[in-house]
Amino acid sequence: MIKIITDSTCNLSQEVLEQYDIRVAPISIQFKEETFEEGIDIDHDLFYRKIEEMGIIPTSAQPTPAWFAKFYREFTDQGHSILVITITSHHSGTYDSAILAKSMVPEADIEVFDSLGISMSTGWIVLEAARAIEAGQNRGQILSRLTEIRERMNFFFTPATLKYLQMSGRVGTLKGVIGSLLSVKPIISTKEGVLGVAESIRTRTKAVDRIIELTEEAVGTSDPINLAVVHARVPEEGRELLERVKNHFNCKETMIAELVCSLAVHGGPGVLALISYKV
């Protein structure tokens, strides 16, 4: 049987991960000398509380190859082959860690797939893979399906402020952002796994309207889609956005999730994102 390993940026719920027996390599989050493993010894409440108490933005680091090797050995000893699905390799070394770990368990049968996405862009691909395995598809069929989904995945988000992107050093890597204009609400999207600014909007309300419009331009309103709303510490805004898009698009399946801490490091509280693809 094929078993899945992913990383903690995928934003899938614990229930889904357990349902499909998916292993998760944790992103490390470091507050000065303190290091936490996402999903193991830090949750959202502790993460935001430490930011407030310490007045700093933590740093994050990809899972070590040892984490992947641990799961490779576990599944290999059980007689399984392995499919690893990671966050985009353009903004994280997680893919490289997963590749490097293959040499540590040479007897394992492993395929590493770069989602070229973040958050639920990766999560949807992981979920599609799990369901394909459950349906009895072989590796070739699964990889073909995942490649198709990856090519038509759409990701648009807007932060409440540029402060966190600036403090984490990401402003300089996002083409089109003027770091001094902290009042600007950029619309950030991904293209071939790279984050970039699609537009800059002056108000929060218009920015949220615009990510809906951009999603419509990408998927239309008649074709069936899967769609996720991801928010960072703004659950009411997230639920309101979900209700709007459920009434606007032909949604086959929807999800809502709070942005994982390892990504909130860069976006900060207030992020709202729409992730969608044609089914």
Count of helices?
Answer: 10
Give the strand content: 25-35%
Proportion in helices = 25-40%
CATH architecture tag of the largest domain: 2-Layer Sandwich
Q: List the quaternary state of the chains.
A: single chain
Largest sheet: 6 strands, mixed
CATH fold title of the largest domain: Hypothetical Protein Tm841, Chain: A,domain 3
Radius of gyration: 18 Å
CATH class of the largest domain: Alpha Beta
Q: Tell me the span between the first and last alpha carbons.
A: 25 Å
**Low-confidence spans:** none
Series of secondary-structure elements, N-terminal to C-terminal: EHEEEHEHEHEHHEHEEHEHEHE
Please tell me the overall pLDDT: 93
Count of beta strands: 13
**Can you list the strand order of the major beta sheet?**
10-9-8-13-11-12
Which structural class best describes the helix and strand composition? alpha/beta
Describe the global form.
globular
| Total number of distinct structural domains | 2
Describe the structure.
39% of the residues lie in helices and 26% in strands. It contains ten helices and 13 strands. The chain is α/β, with parallel strands linked by helices and 279 residues long. The chain has two domains: 2-27 and 62-151, Rossmann fold, CATH 3.40.50.10170; 154-278, Hypothetical Protein Tm841, Chain: A,domain 3 (2-Layer Sandwich), CATH 3.30.1180. It is globular and about 55 Å long. The chain has helices at residues 14-19, 44-54, 65-77, 94-102, 120-134, 139-151, 163-167, 204-219, 235-248, 261-267; strands spanning 2-7, 23-25, 28-31, 34-37, 59-61, 81-86, 110-114, 154-158, 185-191, 194-201, 225-231, 251-258, 272-278.
